[in-house]
Design goal:
- The protein has 328 residues and is of the alpha/beta class.
- It has two domains: 45-149 and 276-306, Response regulator (Rossmann fold, 3-Layer(aba) Sandwich), CATH 3.40.50.2300; 151-274, Response regulator (Rossmann fold, 3-Layer(aba) Sandwich).
- Helices cover 48% and strands 18% of the residues.
- The chain has twelve helices and 14 strands.
- It has helices at 2-20, 58-74, 86-98, 111-123, 138-141, 151-164, 180-193, 207-220, 232-245, 258-265, 277-294, 316-324, and strands spanning 27-29, 39-41, 46-51, 77-82, 103-107, 128-131, 145-148, 169-174, 196-201, 226-229, 250-254, 272-274, 304-305, 309-311.
- It has a six-stranded parallel sheet with strand order 4-3-5-6-7-13, with helices on both faces.
- α3 (86-98) runs parallel beside α4.
- The longest helix has 19 residues, at 2-20.
- The radius of gyration is 21 Å and the shape is elongated.
């Protein structure tokens, strides 16, 4: 796993080396009548990012920031649109195809729901990179690579850590019905846990309801000693639920936010699994840029892993600085 994560970092380094031969803005330096300072754009590039996120989600804000920063670095225009409804997400993909973009980054939380649109993009000659969700099917749909974490590998690592803490009965809180990636996290965590783990479905669009649902479950069963959430903001809800219910359950989570890092430092959250969403957005655009400007298909037919990276009390202070910047 470490080798694959390092492979993702090597990709970023390779991108930096490529840019060192250019102006750093997607423009080639030219000798225009002896004026070494003049530049001319090699190509006007436009990329579309289409995800399954809901508005105001801190995780996806970081994906968007990463994609937009890459676009700024490479001198390419980047548009970001999202909708959790796969039918509406498909329409956004179709719109990008109709606009003739140079590449599309797409997340596939519901692969079957967006398959036809992704395949139409590929058939139109538009390179597609999948991020976050869709690792198991990106090749089938014709995408050039996938950037994200293996939910089965990450989930198993989480289950093992919870077991090492001596915990025996856990809730795995799923905030989005039908999201195959979230379901895989819980399944893999349960398989590696050693104790019992029950899935708890909540409405991720309503934080108050999330906290109330977890609180009710903890009050009904005092033997629950662990709550695993699948998004940073829901971990904060879980912390509140534990406190209000009088439970002694430990909270762990997938994904980071500044509040999560602070809660880890305060001892309220055991650990967070960081799949590095900023990296997913940044490398998604990087992969398309390399395809446009140098014909590269990164990954060698394999996914590029952005995680999992664990944030614990031991390294939370170092991560906190970047979390404040909105990049971790």
């Amino acid at each position: 796993m470490k080798k694959r994560i390092l492979g993702g970092l090597a990709l970023a380094a390779a991108a930096a080396l490529l840019l060192s031969a250019c102006s750093g803005t997607g423009q080639d330096s030219t000798d225009d009548g002896g004026d070494s300072g003049s530049t001319t754009a090699s190509k006007d590039l436009t990329y579309a990012v289409v995800t399954h996120s809901s508005p105001g989600d801190a995780f996806w804000d970081r994906v968007k920031s990463g994609a937009e920063q890459a676009g700024a670095d490479y001198g390419a225009a980047v548009t970001y649109n999202s909708d959790p409804d796969p039918a509406k997400q498909s329409q956004l993909i179709d719109n990008a195809v109709a606009q003739g973009v140079d590449g599309i980054v797409v997340s596939m939380a519901n692969p079957d729901g967006v398959q036809a649109s992704v395949e139409r993009a590929v058939a139109a000659g538009i390179p597609v990179v999948t991020i976050n969700s869709g690792l198991e099917r990106f090749k089938e749909f014709g995408a050039i690579t996938h950037i994200g974490q293996s939910e089965s590998i990450a989930g198993a690592a989480v289950g093992e850590r919870l077991g090492e803490e001596g915990l025996t009965k856990a809730l795995c809180v799923i905030q989005e019905a039908g999201n195959v990636g979230l379901e895989e996290r819980c399944k893999a965590a349960a398989g590696a846990f050693g104790g019992s783990m029950e899935n708890l479905q909540v409405d991720g669009t309503n934080d108050a309801e999330v906290k109330a649902t977890i609180k009710s479950k903890l009050q009904a069963d005092s033997s629950i000693d662990a709550v695993l959430t699948l998004g940073g903001q829901y971990a904060i809800d879980a912390v509140g639920a534990v406190e209000e219910s009088g439970s002694s359950a430990k909270v762990a989570t997938f994904d980071l936010s500044e509040d999560v890092v602070s809660a880890i430092e305060a001892g309220q959250i055991l650990f967070a699994v960081d799949q590095q969403p900023y990296v997913q957005g940044f490398l998604g655009i990087t992969a398309l840029y390399l395809k446009s400007t140098n014909g590269n298909d990164i990954g060698g037919g394999q996914p590029v892993y952005s995680g999992p990276a664990f944030v614990t009390l031991d390294n939370a202070a170092a991560v906190a600085e970047f979390a404040k910047n909105g990049t971790r």
